[in-house]
Amino acid sequence: MGVADIIPGVSGGTVALLLGIYDQLIKQVSTASSAIGSLIRGDVEGCKQRLRSVQWSFLASLLLGIAMALLLLASWLRTQIHERPVIVSSVFFGVIAVSAFMTRREIRKWTPLLYLTFGVVAIATFSLLGIRSGSLNNPTAVVALSAGAIAICAMILPGISGSFVLLMLGLYDHVIAALEQRDTSVLGMYAIGALIGLALFSRVLHMLLMAYRDLVVSVLLGLMVGSLRVLWPWPSDQGGLENTRLETPPVDELLGASIAALLGGAAVVVLVVVVARKENFDNDDPLEMPK
Question: What is the DSSP letter of 105?
Fold first, then answer.
């Protein structure tokens, strides 16, 4: 999830949905945020009770993995995006396309309403992702807080990339530079905003998943398919992953390599899903994906 959140156009939520831990992630984050709400209202006993019901081992291991990826791989991945935009785009295009195909089974029964919802959301996402702004070098604290809140909501939604949201807001380079320089003051502002956004949004999303799961998942799949616009590898000489213009693939020496990269990304997804399902089934894991 950490690697996915670094790449504009790829969402950590997509990884969670693909591996069957999405519902559990939203539930645990929602429970933790409700504890904070209880504390604010002065209900200390209710806060303690909710905190005890959180699966901290699950959240801690997940957050540790995300943090390690962000700190160790952000600079390297940023370099790859700029130096090998076609190959990187191709890999993640394959990852998201196959992820959407495989996670369609999360919906128990497709109906005309779900197909319509999926199509409308996919088209709307595809269209809206063509919009982006220029870069901001010195955002104010309020801007950083707001951007962190918006981006974290995008990161937990499959298909909507928090990195691309930051790119559209003109803050992607600012965040990546802060990660590279270990600028804790800047990162702290984004982190506070992210915590606020996560606390507010996760509870709403959890309630929607509980009440209208198939409809919500059809929306999430539409977001995933629509987001493929960001990952289309061409044109690459005008920004790569940071450019949402669409052109036909040129017949050159990179075409074969990009097709191989796309298939490689798809193969990795299939392998990871097979291993994850086997692990979940063998351990009778409550996070098991539906058959």
Answer: G
